[in-house]
Amino acid sequence: xxxxxxxxxxxxxxxxxxxxxxxxxxxxxxxxxxxxxxxxxxxxxxxxxxxxxxxxxxxxxxxxxxxxxxxxxxxxxxxxxxxxxxxxxxxxxxxxxxxxxxxxxxxxxxxxxxxxxxxxxxxxxxxxxxxxxxxxxxxxxxxxxxxxxxxxxxxxxxxxxxxxxxxxxxxxxxxxxxxxxx
Length: 182
Known about the structure:
Elements: E1 2-9, E2 16-22, H1 27-38, E3 47-51, E4 57-62, E5 75-76, H2 82-85, E6 92-98, E7 103-113, E8 122-127, H3 137-145, H4 163-166, H5 173-178
Parallel strand pairs: 4-5
Antiparallel strand pairs: 1-2, 1-7, 2-8, 3-4, 3-6, 6-7
């Protein structure tokens, strides 16, 4: 099976990436595909989080074994296949690429394509520049001061669960790529 992921940033509206990857690839393979698609270097600690419908974090998949207590399930990217934790279309993930500032990409498993396979991950759509990989606390504070985002932004009752769909994303890849916005 092939998993098709849509990747968005809450920092850069024009940034979008779509990655297709085999369901039997590891989270490390997906991590490397994201680095390739964004131009980010491999010099930072990062993690994936599976999320519920409201983007609440569930399981963490770390780049390295963090030595978590045995009470918590520990998943390491290189040992965890995508299909072990992802089964359903529209599964949400966070890819935290900046731990210090808690910055992340929002990801959705937008389509599962049965009966096909890929040897290597492919970035099938790339628009806009990615956010800057690392920013200082001062720069982050300045960005927040200059934005309309307040502390209640993520818990806002106005949040629309179908926000990814409203961006024009469509399950039909032919229509998706023919759309003039991309």
